[in-house]
Automatic annotation (TrEMBL):
Pathway: Glycolipid biosynthesis; lipid IV(A) biosynthesis; lipid IV(A) from (3R)-3-hydroxytetradecanoyl-[acyl-carrier-protein] and UDP-N-acetyl-alpha-D-glucosamine: step 2/6
Protein known as: UDP-3-O-acyl-N-acetylglucosamine deacetylase
UniProt cross-references to HAMAP family, sorted A to Z: LpxC (MF_00388)
Catalytic residues (UniProt): H288
Keyword terms: Hydrolase, Lipid A biosynthesis, Lipid biosynthesis, Lipid metabolism, Metal-binding, Zinc
Catalytic activity entry: a UDP-3-O-[(3R)-3-hydroxyacyl]-N-acetyl-alpha-D-glucosamine + H2O = a UDP-3-O-[(3R)-3-hydroxyacyl]-alpha-D-glucosamine + acetate
Protein EC: 3.5.1.108
Record organism: Marinibaculum pumilum
Cofactor(s) required for function per UniProt: Zn(2+)
Binding-site list for Zn(2+): H104, H261, D265
Length: 326
């Protein structure tokens, strides 16, 4: 990616927000040790696993298909997104491999501030777990986090970038810190109109966003399975709605769990920018495809963004794992 570089002490960083002083920077992080997640794929219905391993500074997040010859690696980058039907799929530039439904794991990595990791995937997609990011976050917490010796950089939004398709819209706007606001509108009495705003500086990812599960309408299940989708879907890994009834025995985790999950999806999709964003994301009835196209639009305009150092802030709060259902 191009864009202007703003370093600590660079005078340009003082227009809009002060430069970061030496000693107050945040540094990149990885996991302390490897952890494994096993289960079934939401769409394939096949057994899959993912081993999340430490990586060196500057390596970013990389998926490695350990079940394929040569173990091809796929960088977690927006420009490698190829299929956004009920999830986000990344494909190797040479077309030799792909990995699907990466968004919830990417959201967990972003929510915990993990910049570098190698994820060995055995199978064509990431395990569905319970349909949220909470199990991934719990594994990452148990693995522990290790600070690396490279200052963390953010992608600072300099001017609004937006896309509109009928009643759907997405935008990135300049702001002092990162936040997500998502609005949804479903013709269903259980979902209806909902809004969720998530700001990492004010909200705890582990309790506010990570537990929100994916969802679907029962009458759409037959169509999805005819398309080869949701073959592994069940009440164990999704909220299923039948008319005005939530079929899951435990009900909803939040009154606006549907909007929270869309915000979680957006967090995972935006993590494919390759670095944390400094700006405000607003999505109205948007989905994976529009989120990805927004990143393409952002990076196509070099005047819309710049590199900036990330100021150190208080570490993530550590509520008991039981508090987030782990």
């Amino acid at each position: 990616m191009a864009g202007r570089i703003v370093t600590a002490g660079d005078g340009r960083a003082k227009s809009g927000s002060a430069g970061v002083k030496n000693g107050s920077m945040m540094f990149e992080r990885t996991v302390q040790q490897s952890v494994r997640c096993s289960g079934i794929g939401l769409h394939t219905g096949k057994p899959v696993s993912a081993d999340i391993r430490p990586a060196e500074a500057g390596q970013g997040i990389r998926f490695r298909r350990g079940d394929l010859p040569g173990k091809p690696e796929i960088a977690a980058r927006y420009d490698l997104g190829t299929d956004f039907t009920l999830g986000t799929t990344l494909r190797h530039p040479d077309g030799v491999a792909s990995v699907a439904t990466v968004e919830h794991l990417m959201a967990a990595l972003a929510g915990l501030g993990i910049d570098n990791a190698v994820i060995d995937v055995e199978g064509p997609e990431v395990p569905a777990v319970d349909g949220s990011a909470a199990p991934f976050a719990g594994l990452l917490r148990r693995a522990g986090l290790r600070t690396l010796g490279r200052p963390r950089r953010a992608i600072r939004i300099l001017k609004p970038v937006s896309l509109t398709e009928g009643s759907k819209s997405v935008s990135l706007e300049p702001a002092e810190s990162f936040s997500i606001t998502v609005s949804i509108d479903f013709d269903n009495p259980v979902i209806g109109r909902q809004t969720c705003t998530f700001a990492p500086a004010d909200d705890d990812f582990l309790t506010a966003l990570a537990p929100a599960r994916t969802f679907g309408l029962l009458h759409e299940v037959d169509w999805m399975r005819q398309q080869g989708l949701a073959l592994g879907g069940s009440l164990d890994n999704a909220i299923v709605i039948n008319g005005s009834t939530v079929m899951n025995q435990d009900g909803l985790r939040f009154a606006n769990e549907f909007a929270r999950h869309k915000a979680l999806d957006a967090l995972g999709d935006l993590a494919l920018a390759g670095a944390p964003l400094q700006g405000r994301f607003v999505g109205n009835r948007s989905g994976h495809a529009m989120n990805n196209r927004l990143l393409h639009a952002l990076f196509a305009d070099e005047s819309a963004w710049e590199w900036a150092p990330v100021a150190a802030r208080a570490e993530l709060t550590d509520p008991p794992l039981a508090a987030v259902g782990l």
